[in-house]
Amino acid sequence: MTDTPASAANLPHARYIVLEHEGVWKINLDNRYYGPFHTADAAVASATATARKAAEGGYPASVLMMRGTAFDTLWTSVSGPSV
């Protein structure tokens, strides 16, 4: 038995995807765009801070950088292949 409540195990995975969109950096979460940010670093910092807050609230969360069709995981609260 784990200390994780059953409801926390069923929470959706919050994936914060940092990408260049329309010439600026943005964060995509659930097909909604947030930003713009002047640099990739600024977008990553914002996404990571928000993902950490989600993780503190019990949500599995990850920050991904989209490069073309590939994704690089920059930060995650999840272990294993479910990122």
Walk me through the structure.
- The structure is a single chain.
- By secondary structure, the chain is α+β, with helices and mostly antiparallel strands.
- The chain is 25% helix and 41% strand.
- It has helices at 6-9, 40-56; strands at 14-21, 24-29, 32-37, 61-67, 70-76.
- The chain has a five-stranded mixed beta sheet with strand order 3-2-1-4-5.
- The radius of gyration is 13 Å and the shape is globular.
Largest sheet: 5 strands, mixed
Percent helix, as a range, is: 25-40%
- Poorly predicted ranges (pLDDT <50, ≥5 residues)? 1-6
Q: Into which percentage range does the β-strand content fall?
A: 35-45%
Overall shape: globular
Q: Summarize model confidence as the mean pLDDT.
A: 89
In oligomeric terms, what are we looking at? Answer: single chain
N-C termini distance: 23 Å
Strand order of the largest sheet: 3-2-1-4-5
User: Total domains, how many?
Assistant: 1
Q: Say how many strands there are.
A: 5
Q: Please report the number of helical segments.
A: 2
Judged by helices, strands and strand pairing, the structural class is alpha+beta
